[in-house]
Amino acid sequence: MTSFEEAETEETVTCLHLTFYHPGQDEKMMFRCLNFCRRDQVRADDTAKFGRDSSVCRYSLVDTRVSRIQFSLQFYRKLHTSEYGFEIKNLSKKTKLTVNQTELGYLNKIDLPWKCIICFGDYQILAEIQEGDAVDYFETHLHLAEAPILQEKCLPSLQPVPENGISPSFFLSQGKSPTEIDENDL
């Protein structure tokens, strides 16, 4: 047998990509303690904590408006499957955390979707899970966004469209108001 045939099977590692944004990041430099250059290995039994207390948090944000421990991410294996996931828990008593549109109060936790936006205060974090099969650890890879992750979009209000397909806004633009008629009169 060759050394290639005897080599260990290469494991793929679950990687959590986190892209950070804050509107004042250029002036306040709140991300200066985060390492954006390389992937970071985290043991599977460790909890990855984010907050301002660098003695407790693995990922420290330099901002007095951030809680000492803002939130945590716990890696776990889903019951009766070979899939892995992350659980996010809000550890801030003062600031609510939202994951996509789900609001988490203090000590609330949910499964982290494979792609989502985490928000608290003015912070926006895009989280994307890259699946792997390693059991003992996972990796984090931090990125810095140049522009806001969430964009305020002005969407037109969704009004029901009647079965005849003519929108009520059509009548308003014609200077007429809609009138109700019996379908038998058509």
TrEMBL record:
Keyword Flavoprotein carried by entry: no
Keywords, ordered alphabetically: Cytoplasm, Immunity, Innate immunity
Major location (coarse): cytoplasm
Keyword GTP-binding: no
Entry-linked InterPro entries: FHA_dom, SMAD_FHA_dom_sf, TIFA
Subcellular location: Cytoplasm
Ranges of residues in domain FHA: 49-121
A GO BP annotation: positive regulation of canonical NF-kappaB signal transduction
GO cellular component, one term: cytoplasm
PANTHER family linked: TRAF-INTERACTING PROTEIN WITH FHA DOMAIN-CONTAINING PROTEIN A, TRAF-INTERACTING PROTEIN WITH FHA DOMAIN-CONTAINING PROTEIN A FAMILY MEMBER
The family this protein is said to belong to: Belongs to the TIFA family.
Designated name of the protein: TRAF-interacting protein with FHA domain-containing protein A
Organism encoding this protein: Horornis vulcanius
